[in-house]
Amino acid sequence: xxxxxxxxxxxxxTDGAQFHRAQFQLSDVVAGxxxxxxxxxxxxxxxxxxxxxxxxxxxxxKSTLLRLLNRLDDPIAGSLSWDGRKLDDxxxxxxxxRVAMVFQRPAVFxxxxxxxxxxxxxxxxxxxxxxxxxxxxxxxxxxSRDADALSGGxxxxxxxxxxxxxxxxxxxxxxxxxxxxxxxxxTIEELGSSIAGTGVPIIWVTHDVDQLRRLADQVIVLIxxxxxxxxxxxxxxxxxxxxxxxxxxxx
Length: 251
Fold this sequence. Notes:
This protein starts with a helix and ends with a helix. A hairpin with a 7-residue loop joins strand 1 and strand 2. The protein is globular, with a radius of gyration of 18 Å. It has helices at residues 2-14, 62-69, 92-98, 113-117, 126-135, 152-164, 182-197, 209-215, 233-236, 242-247, and strands spanning 23-31, 39-47, 51-55, 77-82, 85-86, 99-102, 170-174, 202-205, 218-223, 226-231. The longest helix has 16 residues, at 182-197. It is built from 10 helices and 10 strands.
């Protein structure tokens, strides 16, 4: 899937499509509980293109970092910006429409699938809701189904559809396949590759090394709340630190 992402990106540029490439910039960021911060002086620029995977051991700060990027949490210290503008200058609601997020467990609200999609777009017409579902590989007729009746994989695809309705510049995905079975995981991975291939970049947290190697165009490795390495898989496969190589599944 990684190669497919790269080809799609190259083809888009060749065809003259100009996708906006925003980036996050973090400088000396400290975040987490004040008495025991999880991120400690993290500094990195995160380019928004293709799929950027966040890898690292449990507790290394991957989810903490992701939550900072659309202001679900704010740092204790340091500065963050996106698209050249400090995050704390953004209205959180406006920011979250441009920096959408999909969580580990599908966020399903009471009511129908249509009701759930209208959380992102309150005046969404049924025909447009059906098209949004079809974009993520679901049957448009599901709009009338009770959202609680969806399977785990269907619910997660609905959440991706809802996120895309805000026309985001980037999607944050916090282990979006962790609670799914193998078949559903692969379906969501294919969806992620498809979304990134159309010019909507994804920052994707994963503990699954095989998934990382299938998906990632770029990888950021966090260890103990700091960036241990970043780059392509080809680069990190030859990193001097054996822990980094192990975390990216280098052979």
